[in-house]
Amino acid sequence: MNARIGVLGASGVYGRHLLPRLIAAGYRVRALVRKPDAAASAAACGAELAAADIFDEASLRAGLAGCEVAINLATSLPAPGEQGDFAQNDRLRREGTPVFVRACREARVSRILQQSIAMTHAGGGDAWADEETFHPVSEGIAGAAIAAVRDMEAAVVESDLDWLILRGGLFYGPGTGFDDDWFARARAGKLRLPAEGDDYVSLVHIADMADATVAAIRRWPSRQPLIVADDGPARWRDVLTYVCAVAGSNPPQPGGRSAMPSFRVKNTRARALLAWAPVYRDYRAGLVR
User: Given its phi and psi angles, is residue 162 left (phi above 0), alpha (psi -120 to 50 degrees) or beta?
Assistant: First the structure.
């Protein structure tokens, strides 16, 4: 029988796409969630439910008992387009991940997979980046987020467990809220380019992220960070102009808030090691209305 997999943060959008794919692939899945009675989608697709919190090592240890693989998808982010406490998510990554790692070790989980973000490779302008390319980014919310991500990854890499890290591009697709927000603002004539729109963004459709995760579990290229993104990073100007064209509105004007530095990443390693390729190869394929 296939391995039992514990998924922390299973009720988030990533988890809601991942769990049914894992179960369809034959894995036994245990959803570790703070509120099991609010995890209807996890229960409906056949997952076991266990109450656990990333800051509560005892609950994690109990929830992970008997699992061969643990996946950490826990995040605490505001909805797209809303103001929120990003520092809370930084704390979750920086302080919660070591708790997760300790609980995995104590529960004798042999393998851990950590969700991360490809924005950790930001700051290179138009230059392409791979898993070994890093630039100093220290300003604002993005700088704080990248610093927290690097601490999070260090907690995983420096452990004595077998690990994988998947650095996802910016999620879009059903349930993520990003493309819904873009189209809503486009139709209202309120969509703006971040600054002049010249920076690159590397996207990944949430379905492709989930498929890559299943491939990673199946193939397990041990102790590797992998960038999971589409094939065509694009300038914000091109992405949001396309959104406006599909929405039937005027092209977006410059001057909007720039929330993240430019990042243009390659998915070459993930393609090779996972035998995976994105179904939605660029934003044109995925931004369908």
Answer: beta
The token pair at 280 is: 């939605």
60 near 8, Cβ under 8 Å? yes
CB atoms < 10 A from the CB of 224, how many? 16
What lies within 8 Å, CB to CB, of 163 at 6+ separation is 111, 112, 113, 114, 156, 157, 222, 223
pTM over 0.70: yes
Q: Which of 175, 185, 227 is nearest to 203 (CA)?
A: 227
Task: Give 222's contacts (C-beta < 8 A, 6+ positions apart).
Answer: 162, 163, 164
Q: For residue 52, how many other CB atoms are within 10 A of its CB? A: 28
Contact 287, 246 (CB under 8 A): yes
- Domains in the chain (CATH in brackets) are 4-171+205-230+267-278 (3.40.50.720)
pLDDT in tens, 87-109: 899 999 999 999 999 999 999 99
